[in-house]
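Subject: Histidinol dehydrogenase structure
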Amino acid sequence: MRIVELTDESKNNILENLLKRSPNSYGKFESAVAEILLNIKTRGDEALFEYTKNFDKADINADNIVVTEAEIEEAYSLVDPELIDVIRKAIVNIRSFHEKQKQYSWFDSKPDGTILGQKVTALARVGVYVPGGKAAYPSSVLMNVLPAKVAGVDQIIMCTPPDKEGKVYPTTLVAAKEAGVDVIYKAGGAQAVAAMAYGTKSIPKVDKICGPGNIYVALAKKAVFGYVSIDSVAGPSEILVIADETANPRYVAADLLSQAEHDEMASAILVTTSEDLAHKVSAEVDKFVAELSRKEIIQKSLDNYGYILVAKDIDEAVDVANEIASEHMEIVTKNPFDVMTKVKNAGAIFLGEYSSEPLGDYFAGPNHVLPTNGTAKFFSPLSVDDFIKKSSIISYSRNALEAIHTDIEKFATAEHLTAHANSIKVRFEN
């Protein structure tokens, strides 16, 4: 990996390079996505089935688009029982963590007859998108479905592309069943996002769409925002490790590569106060890359977006980490909890050498759907909050309103909204 001395110039160059990975930079795909969305919006199922035939080579129609109980039972027979047991253990951890995020309605009453409050209501229907193809992501199913279940969403549907035989990856079906998905549809890509956003005869319109996908899925979610809510427009995966001379270089190298293997646009960055550690980690990275199965993807990721930055002290390391605002941040220092208190921008923070990033991806409990590409400066991980909405409650008695009615009338009159003022005034006419 390239080793760079941390300066203002090198920091700015790296930040500029990382921003090239943003989905906002992929305008050349937007026209193709817009055409798909319009087709689904105007032609519904007919267009959906055509796209499924063209892109997935599967003959899907109104009779077979829904995954049946028989197909789910078959999936259970094809998945290793030990993996099913691991999925169930992960569900316990994920559900337990998210249950602590639940919010409740509240009301505050006063002696003068004023009642103010907030009513919390779960969304009615949520759509979860799960990628298909050769890769299976049962962990994504759990992370997107379980907070919605904890929030109390009435119905959770899932869209995932089928293979050419019209089958869905078995581990995806098992994870969906275990997590509590209500209906699973064989549909993928931007066309599935459009179907969930607008509704077709086969797939109902949802209130929110969440889940990962390729650039077409990401741009489709961005385009339908407003018709429905979305979780985020996610960019490529990324990890940043803050480490000092006490860190184990082999562990750090392994953790950097855990994200570099995702795709060629993934980012892996080490910020360290130790030049000796920088060189040792670089050497360990080379050893790992030579033996790992996805070495071509890893090498391109490291060549494009991999850095080892040498900082003069921990404060400078934290400053650049806050600027980058990485999706995943590991702190492997002598006092990781102390360093953590200085961190302002990160999707998820992993403390100590035995808290590597994959722990959060699969098992610990916190959500692995995280802000990417610097958006951790203003976005949070997916949570129960994403599946509820809040209504303000206002109730005044006559006495309570009478005490302040002239104040409201003055405010409304100052804005030249006389009908507003009149709405209050008529209640106190002689």
